[in-house]
Design a protein that fits this description.
Udp-n-acetylmuramoylalanyl-d-glutamate--2,6- Diaminopimelate Ligase, Chain: A, domain 1; 3 domains; 35 strands; 4 helices; UDP N-Acetylglucosamine Acyltransferase, domain 1; 344 residues
Length: 344
């Protein structure tokens, strides 16, 4: 049976109802230079990948940017050097900052969604009360344990089962036949921060959501963070063990298996049918091909773009020493061949 979420547009649409600001109002609050239509109304922020009208997008580099494909009535946060590279800047409004990451963090405060206080509801006379926010949609045959919370705007498909103490944060989308075991949190705030000139951290509010496709099984005490602007997405048929952390903006390909204590950092793209062993750590922005197997306790610090089994285990050391050691390890097979060293 086809899921009612199968044709879902994963691009965010749920922040449109937030407070609207004119660019002039934004510039007054954060003291930023505006070039263009200062009366342009802004509903939210959007990403470079899915830019939307009446939003602000951040562009730190002109590389791979197709200026002509940007929608009308959009504002761009950038610096003066990138601004000069635009061919027709008059069709776009700009916010010019020489510290665009700090400015972006400030902008996320404007559009952070306020969540209502959930109310306890009894949606099944045979089950306990469950705390549910506003505009929540729940499909048939929904089952849940004690102390569960579902925040505003979340959509849950058919035959979904939640263990006890599960939290579904706002605007999460869950497909059909999904199991989420006790203590797991879906849609928590991502770990995105900017270090300011005063050496203190400024948090980037995460305005995106989490999308779980069909036939997913998630173990106990896992944490899947919401995206910064778009969607953290877990593909159909994925199975996840206990104590797994999946960070903001991550995309997991369908039918991937993830063992316990795995940590996947932000903006990684994991291919289909990957098998990730226990206690694997994957650094941010990593991509893997389909049919990749990663051995337990491995550290993944580079893209894995060919199918196969990978192992990455080294003793911890000073980073400068580690780089030299890692360089020579990758050359050992060539050294052996060059000097005709026999295997011991």
């Amino acid at each position: 049976m086809q899921s009612h979420l199968s044709n879902l547009n994963l691009v965010l649409h749920f922040n449109i109802d937030l407070m609207t600001y004119k660019l002039s109002e934004i510039s007054e609050k954060i003291d930023i230079n505006i070039l263009g239509d200062k009366n342009l109304e802004i509903h939210s922020l959007s990403s470079n990948k899915y830019p939307r009208s009446n939003t602000i997008i951040l562009i730190s580099s002109f590389k791979n940017l197709d200026e002509g494909k940007l929608p009308e009535n959009i504002a761009i946060l950038t610096n003066s050097a990138v601004y000069k590279k635009f061919n027709k800047p008059q069709r776009i409004s700009f916010l010019i900052s020489e510290d665009i990451k700090q400015t972006f963090a400030l902008l996320t405060v404007f559009f952070k969604k306020k969540i209502s206080s959930p109310k306890p509801k009894l949606i099944d006379p045979n089950l306990n009360e469950i705390w549910i926010g506003k505009n929540v949609e729940i499909g048939k045959n929904f089952r849940y344990g004690v102390n569960c919370l579902i925040e505003d705007g979340s959509k849950i498909g058919r035959n979904v089962r939640l263990g006890s103490n599960v939290i579904i944060h706002s605007d999460t989308v869950i497909g059909d036949d999904v199991i989420i075991d006790s203590g797991t949190i879906i849609g928590s705030e991502g770990f995105g921060n900017v270090l300011g000139s005063n050496k203190t951290w400024r948090h980037i509010n995460h305005l995106g959501n989490v999308v779980l496709k069909d036939n997913i099984s998630i173990g106990s005490n896992c944490c899947i963070d919401r995206a910064t602007l778009d969607s953290t997405t877990i593909g159909a048929g994925v199975i996840i063990d206990n104590l797994v952390h999946i960070a903001h903006n991550v995309v997991i390909g369908e039918n991937t298996a993830i063992a316990a204590k795995v940590g996947i950092a932000g903006s990684c793209e994991i291919g289909k049918r990957n098998m990730i062993g226990g206690m694997v750590g994957i650094v941010d922005h990593i991509k893997t091909a389909n049919d990749v197997v990663i051995s337990a306790t491995s550290s993944v610090t580079k893209d894995l773009m060919e199918p196969g089994t990978y192992t990455g285990i080294m003793p911890i050391s000073k980073h400068s020493s580690w780089k030299r050691i890692a360089f020579w390890i990758t050359k050992l097979d060539k050294i052996v061949k060059k000097f005709k060293i026999k295997n011991i």
